[in-house]
Write a structure and sequence with these properties.
The protein has 19 helices and two strands. By secondary structure, it is mainly α. It has a single domain, classed as Up-down Bundle (Amino acid/polyamine transporter I), CATH 1.20.1740.10. Helix 6 crosses helix 15. The longest helix is centred in the C-terminal third of the chain and has 35 residues. The radius of gyration is 21 Å and the shape is globular.
């Protein structure tokens, strides 16, 4: 095998590929296992649905801002590039580090864990969490079980696909994304047309809600929407990025919002919000079995597996481009900037992400990962969108192939909402959010070492 080297990525992707990246990134494990979690915090059908609508609106506002930023700076790395340009190299590094420790590895780990839970329906015992052995590290013991080992196997299989080339990764992504969307639309149509349900469920609240809980619920909602900005990470590999990246971001995000709204309406049509809060496992195949029978539950469990696999595949595609861009700028481990001369992929970054994902699988639970990732995504997403104001002020005459719709109101709403969600999380759950901030802060010594090394 040829020795790896540092070179440039190639522009092989079109607007459909970019939109597929968005859809595949977003519609993964989040919509399958977060609705009960959110329903437990917001046990009122109207307010439950409002969290998903609010999350969708925020995702759309964010996508519009990212579209302008991506067209202005069409390079690999997404918000790492935008924060570096707007606030300086340290801010860029911190968002890139957060992407590494939480933003991509976290959703991959959560989806891999959940994929094995769904697979257990067909292969009993696959999700057996009885430890084979435990490495008792302080606070974060590493638990090796059948469940965690199978989840890691899934992660490494997709890592291998993306190491051997953009072509295979793109083909797998487009096929899985298309199958996933078609299956979801068929399920939604069948559920409303012939499924067992009641419109009275939309009137049945299980308990009262508070404003603080509603804001807290937006963290897992934003986790479920995470990936709306995915095409921006691939800007250096998309043809005519000034035109095609905005198209991919907007088409993909709008499609996801529509599917999420319809799915959550269907969930509530099938069962009251109080029962939804009590669902364990995949809400997708549970609702399918409840509405359409046991055979439908099996079919939808297979769809859930495809959906989870598509998410893992897409995050494996997008995330390493950030670490590649950081390493190329000298603010990440140097090996991450290497592109394989034969496969033209950032293979070292892909391997690094898979290794950290494996650690999260061995240490984390679904709820912990959801909050951990959702908090990081909301924090740095808000900072990144705020960069649009900085760059417009600093570079008013720079060519902008795309300008944000609704500027300055839409990005301002996104930034304000992100700030409210983050502050509320810090106040209401200081231990969880503090731990997340501590994990992200571990990147500071690395940044200091790398910057001194460059002198």
């Amino acid at each position: 095998m040829p020795s790896p080297t540092h070179t440039s990525l190639e522009r092989r992707l079109g607007p459909f590929d970019g939109a597929a990246i968005v859809v595949a990134n977003v519609i993964g494990g989040g919509i399958l296992f977060t609705p009960p979690f959110i329903a437990s915090m917001v046990p009122h059908p109207v307010w439950f649905l409002s969290t998903w609508i609010a999350g969708g609106v925020l995702a759309f506002f964010g996508a519009m801002a990212y579209a302008e930023l991506a067209a202005l700076r069409p390079r690999a790395g997404g918000e790492y590039v935008y924060l570096r340009e707007a606030y300086g190299p340290f801010a860029g590094f911190m968002t890139g580090w957060a992407s590494f420790v939480a933003g991509f590895a976290g959703p991959i780990a959560a989806s891999a864990i959940f994929l094995i839970i769904v697979l257990d329906r067909f292969i009993p015992g696959a999700a057996n969490s009885t430890p084979f052995f435990v490495i008792p590290l302080p606070y974060v013991p590493l638990t090796f079980s059948r469940h965690t080992l199978l989840a890691m196997t899934a992660v490494w299989l997709f890592a291998l696909v993306h190491i051997v080339g953009v072509g295979p990764g793109r083909a797998v992504m487009n096929v899985l994304a298309t199958l996933k969307v078609l299956a979801l639309l068929v399920f939604i149509a069948a559920g409303f047309a012939v499924g067992v349900g009641s419109s009275a469920n939309f009137q049945q609240a299980a308990a009262s809600i508070s404003g603080t809980n509603w804001l807290l619920a937006l963290i897992p909602v934003m986790f479920a929407y995470s990936g709306w900005n995915a095409a921006a990470y691939m800007a250096e590999e998309i043809r005519d990025p000034g035109r095609n990246v905005p198209r991919a971001l907007l088409m993909g995000t709008i499609g996801v919002i529509i599917i999420y709204a319809l799915l959550n309406l269907l969930y509530l049509y099938a069962i009251p919000v109080g029962e939804l809060a009590a669902v364990k496992g995949s809400v997708f195949d549970f609702i399918g079995e409840r509405m359409l029978g046991a055979r439908a539950g099996d079919i939808l469990a297979m769809v859930a597996i495809i959906s989870l696999a598509a998410g893992i595949n897409a995050w494996t595609f997008a995330g390493p481009r950030i670490y590649y861009a950081m390493a190329r700028d000298g603010v990440f481990l140097p090996g991450a900037a290497k592109v394989h001369p034969k496969f033209k992929t950032p293979h070292t970054s892909i391997i690094a992400q898979a290794l950290w994902t494996s650690v999260l699988i061995l240490t984390g639970s679904l709820d912990t990962l959801t909050n951990y990732v959702g908090f990081a995504i909301t924090l740095f997403g808000g900072i990144a969108v705020a960069a649009i104001f900085v760059l417009r002020a600093r570079e008013p005459n720079a060519p902008r192939p795309y300008k944000t719709l609704g500027y300055p109101v839409a990005p301002a709403i996104f930034v304000a909402a992100s700030l409210a969600i983050v502050v509320n999380a810090i106040v209401q759950r200081p231990q969880q959010t503090g731990l997340g901030l501590l994990v992200m802060a571990t990147g500071i010594p690395l940044y200091v070492w790398l910057t001194r090394r460059r002198r």
